[in-house]
Amino acid sequence: MAAAVELFATRGYHATTTRDIATAAGMSPAALYVHFPAKSAVLFAISRHGHERTLKLVQTTVAKHPDPVDAMRTLVEQFVAWHAKRHVIARVVQHELTALAPEDFEVVRELRRTTENLVRDLITHGVEAGVFTVPDVRTAARAVLSLGIDVARWYSPTSRPAPEVLGKQYAELVLSMLGYTS
Amino acid sequence: MAAAVELFATRGYHATTTRDIATAAGMSPAALYVHFPAKSAVLFAISRHGHERTLKLVQTTVAKHPDPVDAMRTLVEQFVAWHAKRHVIARVVQHELTALAPEDFEVVRELRRTTENLVRDLITHGVEAGVFTVPDVRTAARAVLSLGIDVARWYSPTSRPAPEVLGKQYAELVLSMLGYTS
Fold it and tell me: Which CATH number goes with the domain that contains A72?
């Protein structure tokens, strides 16, 4: 999977062959085939892994922080820092969604839907608690996730600030965006 | 250029050949060669066009609206609506930057830098006028542009709300993010 991420990120998914992946991973094409019967199966494994990780982050954070402000701050800090640190894999996960097989895409779409619904619920919770004010919960949740995901597009090893600092700055911007005033 | 955008968007830049582009445009490879001596020259033309358009939007908006709140609202409304409406071309422009020839990339990078500096200046202007409060101007400018650009990744013909509505909602979210309270 690591070899495939590198190849997909540098050459693009479509220009990478299963033979390229096998060679980069130090395997024979036949050995690769045992684990991944098609190139899109490798992409699916990478994509599902990334999406499950995000869903778990959101679930864990919400469960751990009953206060919606604390939960949102922690969520954005970690989500943003991860997309900065792991921008190569995050870019592949986000930009090659259309290359997934239809049934695989459905699995990923369901993970994205569940994640987005949790973020919506968190914002709604904050609105009900009187700490957040937003024009539209759906669009606000979209914007929160979008800000984090897009970090992977523009962040590079020479970018500053450091991932954790960026996470903290973005958390403050997001809280402000959601109408929170400390 | 339109034919190339379609091909780059569906197959990816690396898997598209100049012959594919010529065929889709109803030209001979030789005729295409007269205008674009390499595939990367087609990508550069598309990318430069997109980036010049954005720079012009920011310049025009700032010149037209002396009030930083009005300027930022108009800028985000139009920037977001464009990325929603023209998500196919915007996606190619944003996601294939690394495929540009080094000297072409420098031209695009300069356009991006100029655009980002104008957005930073606008935020600084708002901070000085006492209408914006941000933890870090550089990160705030990055977040404003990032929110708009990322619309092209997730927006599809079936997405809602409509581009103009999304633009207005995002403009309110951005003003709030910048600490503006009406």
Answer: 1.10.357.10
